[in-house]
Amino acid sequence: RSPTVKNIQKLLLRIGSATSGKKDVLLSRLQKDMRISKIPDSDNWTKRTRILSIDMGIKNLAFCVADVRLSSEESSATTMEIRAWRRLDVVEEVSKRSGIKKREFAKEGTGEDEERPDPYAPSSLSDTAYTLLKRSLLTYAPDIILIERQRWRSSGGSAIQQWTVRVNTLEGMLWAILTALRTECRITTRREDFKKYNYRIFGVDPKRVGGFWLGDRGKVEGVKRRSKKEGAEEVGLGPESETEDGVGLEGGGKAGGKLSRGKAEKKAKIWLLRSWLDREPPSTALSKHTKPSPDEEEVPAAQAYISFSFFHHAEATRQTLLYATDAASERSKRTNIRKGDVKKVDDITDCFLQAAAWVAWEENRRAIY
């Protein structure tokens, strides 16, 4: 029998494709996207694919580097070996990697010397973006680079925030530099350059990632705040876009009030990731099939089974996320943490879930196809 629109949309959701449109459009998209692999040589189980996942920001950019091996006849588990996972201030990171003292910039609205460089002017930001890629992110030699796709407006507002413009400008610069480096490497005769810059770049819609992992849980209008006596202290949640001082909003309001929809979704993602990482071994640990309702066809479950392992520095980030969501009485058992990231675990969560979603989408595509 002919598949229903609802089931076609479910299949599209499970391979990371758009779900809007009429039935004929959805069917055409499904047929096309099912033939496109998100991970090169995904049928070669001996090949390791390295993914660099970036959650955009300037004062709060987060990235995750994972070596991925997909399931096969020899191994039923898909594995992600997390080699690096951290949050950084882009300007500070570039200064450190360049081995130079952080430049003094004019502070906005202070009337300081206008001759001082603006760190967010194209002339400064382009140099920052290039150095960030060459001396930090591309040193991991990724095969796939995932960049969180930015919006121009938040919460349907008509105004475009200044920090939104800055982060979007950085996003565009990263794309331009990565594309230029890759294009140049394809015409070079140097083997080391070809291997280093022969990556694939993809923009990832954060709404698609959230909808995939959270499902109906992502449609919350708000959640009641818990008092500190009820469990973990309030998790630090960043705003929809960065504030000028780069500090994440830490909830605010009284216990018993409600979080906004955006913050409720962020909190749901943080607790989902905690549920994966607070077990041994860390994994998504979800069944491979969902039980359909009587009027629906059985289709593979949205979440593929993925197991995780962590290198030393990435393990510190894992412990930081667990520490941030622990009850206060349980925090003393965790010593290997990044204290500067405790209030900004939403950024490190987003880049991790983005990488895991990309892997799950490919596993689901292979299972369905």
Automatic annotation (TrEMBL):
<feature type="region of interest" description="Disordered">
    <location>
        <begin position="104"/>
        <end position="123"/>
    </location>
</feature>
<dbReference type="GO" id="GO:0000403">
    <property type="term" value="F:Y-form DNA binding"/>
</dbReference>
<dbReference type="GO" id="GO:0000402">
    <property type="term" value="F:crossed form four-way junction DNA binding"/>
</dbReference>
<dbReference type="Pfam" id="PF09159">
    <property type="entry name" value="Ydc2-catalyt"/>
</dbReference>
<dbReference type="GO" id="GO:0005739">
    <property type="term" value="C:mitochondrion"/>
</dbReference>
<feature type="domain" description="Mitochondrial resolvase Ydc2 catalytic">
    <location>
        <begin position="51"/>
        <end position="367"/>
    </location>
</feature>
<dbReference type="GO" id="GO:0070336">
    <property type="term" value="F:flap-structured DNA binding"/>
</dbReference>
<dbReference type="GO" id="GO:0004520">
    <property type="term" value="F:DNA endonuclease activity"/>
</dbReference>
<protein>
    <submittedName>
        <fullName>Ribonuclease H-like protein</fullName>
    </submittedName>
</protein>
<feature type="region of interest" description="Disordered">
    <location>
        <begin position="224"/>
        <end position="260"/>
    </location>
</feature>
<dbReference type="InterPro" id="IPR012337">
    <property type="entry name" value="RNaseH-like_sf"/>
</dbReference>
<dbReference type="InterPro" id="IPR036397">
    <property type="entry name" value="RNaseH_sf"/>
</dbReference>
<dbReference type="InterPro" id="IPR015242">
    <property type="entry name" value="Ydc2_cat"/>
</dbReference>
<dbReference type="InterPro" id="IPR039197">
    <property type="entry name" value="Mrs1/Cce1"/>
</dbReference>
